[in-house]
Every structure is written in C-alpha cells, then in structure tokens.
Amino acid sequence: MSVFQEAALVAGKDLRIEARARVISQQILPFGLIVLLLFAFALDPDRGVLQRVAPGLFWITVLLASLLGVSRAFSVEAENGARDGLRLSGLDGSSIFLGKAVALAVELLVFEALLTVGVVVLFDVRLASLPALVLGTIAATVGLAAAGTLYGVLAAGIRARETLVPVLLLPIVAPVLLGATRAWEASIDGVPGDAWPWVALLGIFAVLFVGIGMLAFGPLLEES
Amino acid sequence: MSEPVSMGEGLMSPVVRRVFGVLALFALAALVVVGLFVAPPDEVQGDAQRLMYIHVPAAWLAYLAFGVTAVSSALYLWPRTRSFVWDRVAGASAELGVIFTGLTLLLGSMWGRPVWGVWWAWDARLVTTAVLFFLYLGYLALRRVPAALDVRAKRCAIAAMIAFVDVPIVHFSVTWWRTLHQKATVFNPDLNAEIHGTMALALWIGVLAFTLLYVYLLDLRYRLEVIEEDREERELEAAIADRVQGGMASPETVGVGS
User: Fold this and answer.
1) Do the chains contact at B180 and A182, CB–CB below 8 Å?
2) Domains of chain B and CATH, by start
3) What is the mean pLDDT of residues A106-110?
4) Under an 8 A CB cutoff, do A167 and B137 touch?
5) Beta carbons of A172 and B162 less than 8 angstroms apart
C-alpha cells in the first residue's frame, strides 16, 4: 500500500469513530457556539465591536476547539490498547500521521463551516472575497491539524497531557491565529490583495508541519 | 554503607569552571563600574538608558542559549552523535534561555515605562520575544514530565527542534503584522542612534560578562542534571532491592518502595 492508501485507512477509521460517537456534533460544536455567545456577553453587541473583531474571535474559538479535537483524537487511541494496535499494524509512522491529521482537519473544517454560519448570523458579518477566505481557512486548518497531531502524539503517554498540550501547542500555532485572522479581515473588508500574503504564510506553515510530522510521528509513537 | 554520592561529572573540569566563574565575576564587577559610574547618562533617556547595559546582554544570552539548545537537540537526534550529554546540555541551556528571556522582557519593561511611557508596546521584537519565552517554557514543562531517560530525551529533542523551526515563522509573521498595520514608532532608527565611547564599552563588557556567566551556569546546571539522574537511579535500585527483600506480598515495602 502506498502512503496515501494507508493514510486514507487511518483517516477513515478516525472519521468513522467520530461519525458514530458524535462527540464533534454533540459536544465540540455546541462548545463553539456557546463561546460565540459568551463573546457577545463580554463585548457589547450594540457598539459594533463584535463585527470588527469577529475574525479574531472566530479563530480563537477554532484554536480552543482544536485543543479539544487533539485531545479527542488521542483519547480514542488510549482506550482498549488501541495505540498498541496502531503500532503493531505495520502501517508506516508517516501514513498514520497523515491519516490522523487529515481526519482532524476534516473535523475542524466541518466545525469551522458551522461556526462561520454562527458568526454570520450572530455577529452580522458579511463575507466577501470568498476564494482568499476559503483557501486561507483550509491552509490554516491543515497547519493546525498537523501541529496538533504532532503534539498529540508527543504527549500521548503522559498523564498530564490535557494541560501540557495547550502549553506546548498554543505558542507554536500563534502564527496561524495571526495569519488566519488577518486573511479573514482582508477578505471581509473586500481587499483580497492583502489576504494572499497571509494565505501564503499559512500554506508554508502547513507544509512545514506536515513535513515535520511525517518525519517525527513514527519515533514518537514508538515510545508514547 | 553506600558509595559516596558523586558530585556530578561536568562538561569541563572543576578548575576550568571555577576560572570561568571568577572571570564572570570580574567582568560583572567591571560592568557595574563602567555601566553605572564611568559611562555618562544618556542625553535623552537619562539614567534609564543604563538598563540597556544588562538588557542587551541578557537578550544576547537568551538567543545564544536557545541556539545551543537547538544544536544539542539536533546532535542528540542524529544517530551517530546520540549521547545523553547533548540532552543534558539542551535542557540546561533552555532553562538559562528562559530565565534570561524573562529577564530581558522584565528589564525592557522597566526601561520602557520611563522612556516610552508604557510598560509594554506591541512592537514586533517584543511580541516575538514573548512568544519565544512561552515556546521554551512549554519545552521546560515537557522536560519535567517523568519518563525513562531515552524516551524523555528523544521527545524533548523533537520538541526543541519544532520550537526552533517555529521561531522564524513567528518572527516573520509578527513583523509583517506590525508593519502592515502601522509603522514602527518605537524602534525608530533615530532613537537607536549610534553609540560610542564608554557607552559602547559598557555594552561590550556586559556581553562578555554574560557570556562567561552562561558558560559557568551551563556547566553548573549540567552537573546538577547528572546528580539528579544519579539520584533517580539510586532510588529505583533501592526500591527494587526493597521489593526483592520483602518478597511478593509485603504491603509495607511495596508502599515505601514506590
């Protein structure tokens, strides 16, 4: 099997588990929406503040949800010795990484699509320049998923992983928040020219972390 | 009863380390004299500018320390040079780096208040330094997680490499962000006018003093790491001996041993 076929197997497994367990739709999505509501409580909706800072709020919510997603992606492997199964499966470390990262990225994209509806409805945001916005979102999500999967396996065997992963992951993905927020701002303002450099930066981040993940995942999984 | 507790093998002989320590002490004393008394107060900033004589060396030391962490982590990951020496150097250096990054931020903040009028400004360099601080703080948290030595070493070396790769991206994105939206006002080239004479001398003495101090502290911290590993090994052996002696079903020894 090629790397991509193996990755598709792993991604299919993770997505099937998600589809059946419905943790994303029943827990993580409501979490995201309640965060949007809390933002409205914190920042008075009548002063137009929400509308102006909506891209930042959106991406902070995504960042928080991605922490939950990472934790979820590896708690699935922690039960019933599933991680040993994965190690013994004979699948290549880089394919397992790709598969898990793709599954996480797909889950996050679904989450983001629904959260976007929330932002548009609740914060009265008008989306313009869709190509830059969509591409930027995809690049940012792939970067987030890759970095998250990498730190997820790094902390997989550790008892304090729930608190360790945010401390490790959030500073690393700070550029993603920065880039994705700027790309969204530029797209919403209708000046996609300003968004493209940020989309490129997000793309570089994504490629870099997919690369590192494919290299490092195998050795890390062995010892988690 | 047991063999004497080792004082820890250092990176260098105790004599050499002591020489570095004494030299660092002398250089620091010279820095105090030149920085506080010989160098004139800044025309614009007054005495507050004297903070630069330790702020800049601290920042230099932080970069040096993180650079050493990255190189040692890479050397650990490279199979031919794999040795716990590099793991310990990486950990010791990262600890110094975090402390001196914190010091850099603190001193910069103390300087910024009288000179800029604010404790903090969203300048690219400041933001990058703050992210750097948190990146390696996370690394140190990871080092504190108990695990078998080789597991911890590999895990931490990979984390250090990731952090190192991330730094340029953070720097680049932050710089871009701050320049796209507003021109840098605080790091105006006019403010960073060229310095000369005793002021430059004080700065150079500071850099020298902090570098010597770094070498001294690195070796000290390295030895501490060796002693810690040694202690853990002894405790493990004692626990195993306890269990062997107490047999299988003795709850007291099991409780004490673990």
Assistant:
1) yes
2) 14-184+207-239 (1.20.120)
3) 95
4) yes
5) yes
CB contacts < 8 A (A, B): 73
Is B158 within 8 Å of A204 when comparing Cβ atoms?
A: no
B190 vs A33: CA distance, rounded Å: 49
Q: CB-based contact (8 Å) between A216 and chain B?
A: yes
Residue A154, amino acid: L
Q: What are the tens digits of pLDDT across the range A86-98?
A: 888 878 888 999 9
Cα three-residue angle B192-B196-B200, rounded to 5 degrees: 85
Percent over 70 (pLDDT), chain B:
85
The pLDDT tens digits of the residues spanning B165-212 come to 999 899 888 888 876 554 444 455 555 555 667 888 888 999 999 999
Is the per-residue pLDDT at A81 higher than 90? no
Of B138, B177, B180, the CB nearest to A167: B138
**What is the value of ipTM here, to two decimals?**
0.88
- Domain spans of chain A? 3-222
First to last CA, chain B: 22
Percent helix / strand / coil, chain A, rounded to 5: 90, 0, 10
Chain B residue with the nearest C-alpha to that of A154 = B155
Assign residue A191 a region (left: φ > 0; alpha: ψ between -120 and 50; beta: otherwise). Answer: beta
d(CA B100, CA B162): 21
Task: Point out which residues pair with B46 in neighbouring strands.
Answer: B42
Question: Residue B153: its chain A contacts at CB < 8 A?
Answer: none
Residues of A in contact with B170 (CB under 8 A): 171, 174-175
User: Are A197 and B176 in contact (CB < 8 Å)?
Assistant: yes
Give the 3-state secondary structure of residue A99.
Answer: helix
Structure confidence at residue B7 (pLDDT): 61
Whole-number Cα distances in Å, B55 to A90, B174, B208, B214? 53, 21, 13, 15
Q: Which of B128, B143, B155 to mutate to test the interface with A (most CBs of A within 10 A)?
A: B155
A223 touches chain B (CB under 8 A): yes
pLDDT of residue B184: 45
Residue B6: its pLDDT value, please?
Answer: 57
Do residue A150 and residue B162 have CB atoms under 8 angstroms apart?
A: yes
Amino acid at B46: G
Residues of A in contact with B129 (CB under 8 A): none
